[in-house]
Specification:
about 150 residues, alpha+beta, Small Protein B, Chain: A, seven-stranded antiparallel beta sheet, two-stranded antiparallel ribbon, 4 helices, about 30% helix, globular
């Protein structure tokens, strides 16, 4: 059986702000109006983060899923916490990692896999200012190099 994956939203700042150490795939427990909005691409991960509680599980916090227009009075709260569907072993591993200083869990992207909403999350360590400057310098150098090689072709 082939897997059909359609990317919906990405957190573009995550790899710039953090060193991404380990990635996980989590299911999202959504209400009916929420999955309709996600399928329409009405989700933002820019301010989102993941909160892990060893006893209760993992939750996606501050992710904005726009209200679905046709749901009228049965609509959802756009910023409500959403449960992440993960194995207990994965939750325990994240819980142990987050207790270290400077380590957090960030959402990377939301996608549909065989019709089900999935969230790619990563255990991440915050970058310092000099790390960010180094990344910008490296990116600029690569861009300049590709521009020079492109100019030589013509």
């Amino acid at each position: 059986m082939s897997e059909h994956v359609k990317s919906i939203a990405t957190n573009r700042k995550a790899s710039f702000e953090y060193f991404l150490l380990e990635r996980f795939e989590a299911g999202l427990a959504l209400k009916g109006s929420e999955i309709k909005s996600v399928r329409a691409g009405q989700i933002s991960l820019s301010e989102a983060y993941v909160r892990v509680d060893d006893a209760r599980g993992a939750f996606l916090m501050e992710a904005h899923i726009a209200p679905y227009v046709q749901a009228n009075r049965f609509n959802h709260d756009p910023k409500r916490p959403r449960r992440l569907l993960l194995q207990k072993k994965e939750i325990r591993e994240m819980w142990d990692a987050v207790r270290q200083k400077g380590v957090t869990i960030v959402p990377i992207r939301v996608y549909l896999k065989n019709g089900r909403a999935k969230l790619e999350i990563a255990i991440a360590k915050g970058k310092k200012l000099h790390d960010k400057r180094e990344a910008i310098a490296r990116r600029d150098a690569e861009h300049e190099l590709s521009r020079e090689t492109h100019d030589r072709k013509f």
